[in-house]
Write a structure and sequence with these properties.
573 residues; alpha+beta; Immunoglobulin-like; six-stranded antiparallel sheet; five-stranded mixed sheet; 17 helices; 13% strand
Length: 573
């Protein structure tokens, strides 16, 4: 078929891919860096390889939590990971001590940084480029999902419908823009399923199946779920192919690609999967298969994350969205209840069953946190094809309202739900503002006062508002607190003192990252019995939760000036 005719034949799929890629890039800019399950670990793995030119060794503490992962996805990310200077191939995030998983009440594991704004630079730029890799893998999965639909007997129109479900389903779209090895696994699982659905396998077929399996096993250990699937297909073909030679070539090609990794783990850790050290690093509430309570929590987590559960499973969509998409799922199930199960669909549904089995096994290993629908997504193309068939049978042409609804959600969710859960506590960099005072803690990075709006008068017994602008040069090793003193002009003694927490403690210093800028509106309650007169305004940083020591104030040329800065005067009336 000439290229122009092929384009005309598949133009709906090409248009769908264009819309998907546009929305995916939009989503990636609205999700703060690190705000997805294990994304910081996956990014650190790729950047660790780019910095050190070797794979991580769990015995040395390299890439905690993710160092046991097979390396293929991270190797394929290397052109992107190495597209910035070596010093920028780092993950710079500060933990939020009020995060839900840390015992707090906030959904953010980290926070927006001042430099998390276009045009992206340094480590922010490379992180966003790594997200492009996931988007590319997901886009190819949509194409292969369309091809799977055709091999399962769907019409071209219905296969496009199924591909649209893959492209715009909220949870799939969210995970497809995070730095992870999951999107590559989805692509390889889809490719393997497409190969297994080949109606007339030729001599090349065992090699292709084995190579795809090997690549999947070199991407993620959960790819072991594909081995029984291949076994089922070989059993179906036992009378039409030379079974044992095919099995031999298949095993040889998969082992040649992935076998060395599992031998390496066995030699290094005494465990082909490296799970011993992984479990030592990872803790989660346990899951008991014999507890009805645990099953209830598991199914709630699995069900909600199947539709839309963003962040680290910590940002929920509006309740109406769950009910609306659940109704569509119900309509689809009504339509597929009489779906004819031939050999092709036996393979397809077997993949769904194996994905559920792996998710159950992982939850038993890792605890309740293992009940996440993303572990089912290797079977997403099958689910999309089944839903497309079910909706066509139950509501006919009205089924096309669902893709339109999903696209509308995909446009609105990034701002109304996702980024709304992560308010900016920082402001954009303002390097043109001069340094008014500089604190250099003995064991941490400098802190700069870059602006202050000091009302010239204050009234005793009433609040006095002082607006400040700060810049953190780097991370801090303790939670500094800000003090504000009023003192008699020229006096060495302080007339009185009181402490003011930055933004009431919301943006404390343990969350500062390099080049963070933030505004702090200080509400200073002037005592009613303070004598009228002119006072110096002195501010500084002290270790309120440690030894109460103060950070030193230094001049630009390295001279210690004291432990506070005089930032102006105020007349108390």
């Amino acid at each position: 078929m000439p290229a122009l005719q092929r384009f005309r034949y598949h133009w709906p799929l090409l248009l769908l891919l264009l819309v998907y890629c546009t929305l995916a890039v939009w989503w990636s800019t609205r999700i703060p860096l690190g705000e997805g399950p294990d994304e910081p670990g996956h990014a650190e793995y790729a950047l660790f390889v780019a910095r050190n030119n070797r794979l991580p060794d769990q015995r040395l503490g390299d890439v905690p939590g993710e160092g046991h992962q097979p390396p293929l996805a991270y190797w394929l990310m290397q052109p992107l990971a190495r597209s910035v200077a070596v010093e920028d191939r780092v993950v710079i995030l500060a933990n939020n001590h009020r995060w839900i998983w840390a015992g707090g009440k906030e959904p953010a594991a980290f926070a927006w940084r001042s430099i998390d704004r276009p045009p992206y630079q340094a480590d922010v730029l490379v992180w966003h480029r790594l997200r492009w890799f996931s988007i590319g893998c997901a886009a190819l999965t949509i194409v292969v999902g369309y091809a799977i639909g055709l091999r399962l007997g769907l019409s071209k129109t219905l296969a496009t419908f199924a591909a649209s479900l893959l492209a715009f389903w909220p949870q799939l779209l969210f995970h497809s823009v995070l730095v992870s090895n999951d999107p590559l696994l989805w692509l390889l699982c889809a490719g393997l399923l497409w190969l297994l659905l080949e109606p007339n396998p030729q001599a090349w077929w065992p090699w292709a199946v084995g190579a795809t399996l090997g690549a999947a096993l070199l991407t993620k250990q959960s790819a072991v779920l594909l081995i029984p699937l291949i076994g089922l297909r070989l059993w179906q073909l036992r009378r039409s192919i030379n079974l044992w030679p095919a099995l031999g070539w298949l095993s040889l090609s998969s082992t040649a690609i992935a076998g060395w990794w599992y031998v390496r783990n066995l030699l290094l850790y005494g465990d082909p999967f490296g799970l011993g050290l992984y479990k030592g690093e990872f803790s989660s509430p346990t899951f008991s298969p014999w507890s009805l309570h645990d099953w209830g929590e598991a199914m709630h987590a699995l069900g909600s994350s199947l539709i839309a559960r963003f962040g680290w499973m910590s940002v929920a969509a509006p309740q109406w969205l769950y009910w609306l998409l659940a109704i569509w799922l119900g309509l689809a199930i009504l339509g597929i209840r009489r779906l004819r199960i031939d050999q092709r669909w036996q393979i397809a549904w077997a993949l769904v069953g194996l994905a559920f089995a792996w998710t159950f096994a992982f939850a038993v290993l890792s605890g309740q946190v293992g009940w996440q629908a993303r572990f089912l997504f290797p079977a997403a193309p099958v689910a999309a094809c089944a839903l497309a068939i079910g909706l066509e049978r139950s509501i006919k042409t009205a089924a096309w309202l669902l893709p339109a609804l999903l696209v509308t959600m995909a446009v609105g969710l990034p701002n109304t739900v996702i980024s709304a859960a992560y308010p900016y506590l920082v402001v954009e960099p303002q390097p043109e503002r001069p340094v008014l005072a500089l604190w250099r803690p003995d064991t941490a990075n400098p802190i700069e006062l870059r602006g202050i709006l000091l009302p010239p008068t204050a009234k005793a017994g009433q609040p006095w508002l002082v607006n400040t602008l700060w810049r953190a040069v780097g991370k801090q090793d303790r939670q500094w607190s800000l003090f504000v003193h009023l003192a008699e002009v020229g006096s060495k003694d302080e007339s009185f003192a009181f402490d003011v927490q930055p933004q009431d403690g919301v943006w404390h210093s343990l969350r500062w990252t390099p080049d963070d800028w933030w505004e702090d509106l200080l509400t200073i309650n002037i005592p009613s019995d303070l004598a009228a007169g002119e006072y110096e305004v002195r501010i500084g940083w002290f270790d309120e939760f440690g030894d109460w020591s103060r950070a030193g104030v230094w001049s630009q040329d390295g001279i210690l000036l004291g432990d506070y800065a005089v930032v102006g005067k105020v007349v108390v009336e």
